[in-house]
Amino acid sequence: MTRTAQRVFEHQRIWRVTPSALSDACLLLFAAISRDYPKVDHVIGIANGGTAPARILAGRLGVKPRSVQARHNADDGLYRQATGKVSVDFDAFRRGLGRRNLDGTVLVVDDICGSGATLHKLRNVLTPVLIPDASVITATLCLNSGAETGPDYSVWTVSDWVSFPWEKRPDQPTTDMPVPDRVTSHA
Q1: CA 60 to chain centroid
Q2: Where do the record's region annotations for Disordered lie (predicted)?
Q3: Which of 42, 89, 103, 135 has a C-alpha 20 to 30 A away from that of 63?
């Protein structure tokens, strides 16, 4: 990525993904992904936000979830713009694999694609541990409308801040995310 895409914040509301909406969204993602990819061999959650949805999806897909630490911003303050600088603890992830490389279809999961920088970085970082015929697909719960590069699958497109069940609830009022009814495929 040559420039950093800017996340869009209309400052209309702070969306809140409820545990129920999370469950519904993961069920929709599972249905769309398993329709297009009958066999997913690995599920990797981008920690911290992608860990919970990755665990849910891995359980439905019948595979063991893994996680990789990746950080885009120094903190999770409201309305933070993307820096374009993503750090990944690849060494810890690689140690977790042992001598094994990843084969088949690898699903990378995150809570939100804000600018696209994290997903872009993870695709590149995973390359050394993929066997030649392996493929990487990506899924997020939310896609910010300002993202330069999107995931292969997402549930909600947003133009405001999103609060997830695993985060501290904002001190400001929130609006529950609408019940999801479809997955958008960007592949």
Answers
A1: 17
A2: 167-187
A3: 89
